[in-house]
Design brief:
CATH superfamily of the largest domain: P-loop containing nucleotide triphosphate hydrolases
CATH class of the largest domain: Alpha Beta
Strand content: 5-15%
Structural class: alpha/beta
CATH topology of the largest domain: Rossmann fold
Helix content: 40-55%
Mean pLDDT: 82
Strand order of the largest sheet: 2-1-3-4-5
Radius of gyration: 29 Å
Number of helices: 20
Largest sheet: 5 strands, parallel
Length: 484
């Protein structure tokens, strides 16, 4: 018998799309526009899988999920939301959700998750029953990229798996590591961040593993290593690529045997520590160059998380700005033109750079609305001289955001975009070539026959000159530029 799917979502367009997609797969589908109606439907006919929105009229999805567990304990619940954050993701997974989908999502992606849920609907393989504390908003974002990060944290936090966090400098790798620890069963135990690059290269082994008295010159007493200090909790190794090769071999032993051998000691002692590591370096390249052990890499990279740079999630910038300003004890208004200037920047320093820029601006604004002139000089100069290329990038980003803000985003965005911008490009170049097709084709890098086809498609034939074999006449006498 085909699987039964219950869709609980008050957005008619989304519910309709999901229903049609599920029915095409042969599933039996029921739809409810509220949690109350969905629970009633589940009592009438227990589903195999529930697609459950979080924001609903009346009872919210998280509350409904707990009641569904009593009504239909074998049903796999897939949470859907367009307004998720880390706490939402963790609450969903800890409450027994099979998976977590951030809207808008591709229908095929949703169907893939649905198929997995149906095949495992008797197991609830992602369930976790930890009573998690409120993390307080430390990871901010509503972009699809950050929704993915929230989901990854929620899934891996209850486990003891090693996590390797990658991303550019300033993207928040330590914040993610702390969030994983906070939402894990080790949250009452130590979280110990270690910046490997800041350690004395000659003493890295002693710092991590400890040493016994007399192990080397200057070792006048026993010293407990950082791995032992983090016993029972989590150690966060930042700048992993800077660990020397000999120390890498000993770290591998910790992972494989859960024991630490201090420098100069004859016997190891057991530790139970979770290792989360991070780097912005290219570890596969370091392995190829012989600077990093491949076996250690695979042991540390059990669960990879790659953080997006700020420039790839600029829609989160206003939220981040408000958060940092509150943390600074200031709550000034960010003027629209100031936000535009902030979004125009490339942000090589990512979220860390944004925090510093806002601190600078808040000092100058002194409680007043933050204006463009309050931003640091580099930011102001960049925005004042914003190139046409930069404005184009911003326009494209805004256009994409508008498309995904629609209830049912088009699945023909590439063609829709081309049909919007190509006529403008052709017309502008035609006008600057005085309607001459030969010159226009040369500047566009197209054959004349190809250009002719596009002009007909976009009804621009009348904007061009039929004498396509003639070059435009020069606007000045070339002889005037020669020496007398």
């Amino acid at each position: 018998m085909s699987a039964r799917v219950l869709i609980i979502d008050d957005e008619e367009a989304i519910a309709w799309s999901l229903r049609k997609a599920c029915e095409r797969q042969g599933y039996r589908v029921a739809v409810a526009a509220s949690a109350e109606a969905g629970l009633a439907e589940a009592r009438r006919q227990p589903p195999d899988v529930v697609l459950l929105d979080i924001r609903l009229p009346g009872m919210d999805g998280i509350t409904a999920m707990a009641r569904l567990a009593r009504i239909a304990p074998d049903a796999a619940v897939i949470i859907m939301t367009a307004h998720g954050n880390l706490d939402t993701a963790v609450r969903a997974v800890s409450g027994g959700a099979f998976d977590y989908l951030a809207k808008p999502f591709d229908l095929q992606t949703g169907l893939n998750v649905l198929q997995r849920a149906i095949s495992r609907s008797r197991g609830n393989d992602l369930a976790c029953n930890h009573d998690l504390p409120d993390s307080g908003e430390t990871l901010i974002g509503q972009s699809p990229a950050m929704q993915t990060i929230f989901k990854q944290i929620a899934l891996v936090a209850p486990t003891d798996a090693c996590v390797l966090i990658t991303g550019e400098s300033g993207t928040g790798k330590e914040v993610v590591a702390r969030a994983i620890h906070t939402h894990s069963g080790r949250r009452s135990q130590p979280f110990l961040p270690v910046h490997v690059a800041a350690l004395n290269p000659n003493l890295v082994e002693s710092e991590l593993f400890g040493h016994v008295r007399g192990a080397f010159t200057g070792a006048d007493r026993n010293r407990v290593g950082l791995l032992t200090l983090a016993d029972g909790g989590t150690i966060f190794l930042d700048e992993l690529a800077d660990i020397p090769l000999p120390v890498q071999a000993k770290l591998l032993r910790v992972l494989e045997r859960q024991e630490v051998l201090p420098v100069g000691a004859a016997e190891p002692h057991p530790v139970h520590v979770r290792i989360i590591s991070a780097t912005h370096a290219d570890l596969p390249a370091a392995i190829a160059a012989g600077r990093f052990r491949h076996d250690l890499y695979y042991r540390l990279n059990v669960y990879p998380i790659e953080l997006p740079p700020l420039r790839q999630r600029l829609e989160d910038l206003p939220l981040l700005a408000q958060y940092f300003l509150r943390r600074l004890g200031a709550n000034p208004t960010l003027l629209p033109e100031t936000i535009q200037m902030l979004q125009a920047r490339r942000w090589p320093g990512n979220v860390r750079e944004l925090r510093n820029v806002l601190e600078h601006a808040a000092i100058l604004a002194r409680g007043c609305p933050i204006r463009p002139e309050h931003l640091p000089g580099e930011q102001r100069n960049l925005a004042d001289s914003l190139s046409a290329h930069g404005r184009m990038i911003r326009a494209v980003r805004e256009w994409v955001q508008q498309q995904f803000a629609q209830p049912s985003p088009s699945t023909e965005l590439h063609q829709q975009f081309l049909s919007t911008v190509e006529p403008i490009l052709f017309l502008e170049v035609l006008q600057r070539c005085q309607g001459n097709r030969l010159a226009t084709a040369r500047y566009l890098g197209l054959a004349r026959a190809t250009l002719r086809k596009w002009l007909r498609k976009y009804h621009l034939d009348s904007a061009s000159d039929d004498n396509t074999d003639l070059e435009p006449k020069p606007t000045h006498d070339p002889k005037a530029d020669s020496e007398p």
